[in-house]
Amino acid sequence: MIEEKKYLKFGKREKVKNGFMKGKQRYKCKCCGYNYIGSKNGYPDHIKLKAIKYYLEGNGFRRIERLMRVSHVSVINWVKQFIFKFKNIPKQHEKVDVLELDEICVSLKKIWLWTAVNRKTKRLVGFHVGDRSSKSFENLCKNISHIDARFYATAIFSL
Fold it and tell me: pLDDT digit string (tens) for 4-35?
């Protein structure tokens, strides 16, 4: 592996953009012509987990943006990654007084995240990823069938 300090000039690498490689920006050293892909960008995992925790506690994407000083688009992407990684969470039977049901569009491709949150504990107890149809709502209801709720609340109605 080529040593990094060989390509430094005055403590900073003199570089120019030189196309893309596998979807990532490629750079070229002005001094020697060496091509390389820039260092890994992004936020550390503990920042991502904290943002997801804020979201699961009921905070909105823009509120998380203001609290953590990260882009709300990044938070949306982290939540989407979290959803697809943890679709099959083991379910426990529990009793809930009020269960809040909500949906939010998480993509320009009209992908909707349906959530069920325990109003008292603010804990996510179920979710479904789909479109904004009655079939997706039925799938959410299947996902929360292990919950014994006295009341269901939505944005407009109390069921």
Answer: 444 444 445 678 888 888 788 888 888 777 88
Spatial separation of the C-alpha atoms in residues 82 and 54, rounded to whole Å:
13
Same domain for 105 and 69, yes or no, is: no
Clarify whether residues 63 and 97 are in a common domain: no
Task: Name the one residue in this structure whose structure tokens are 């959410």.
Answer: 140
My answer on whether 158 and 139 are in the same domain is yes
One domain for residues 156 and 91: yes
Please say whether the beta carbons of 127 and 137 come within 8 A: no
Range of the domain at 26: 4-37
Supply the pTM of this predicted model. Answer: 0.44
Q: CA dist 8 to 11, 21, 33, 40, 43, Å?
A: 6, 22, 13, 18, 25
Can you tell me the mean pLDDT for 62-72?
Answer: 91
What is the C-alpha to C-alpha distance for residues 94 and 112, in angstroms, rounded to an integer?
26
Domain count, the chain: 3
Express each pLDDT in 87-97 by its tens digit.
Answer: 665 566 778 88
Instruction: Please tell me the distance from the alpha carbon of residue 22 to that of residue 20, in angstroms, as a whole number.
Output: 7
**Displacement of CA 82 from its chain's centroid (Å):** 6
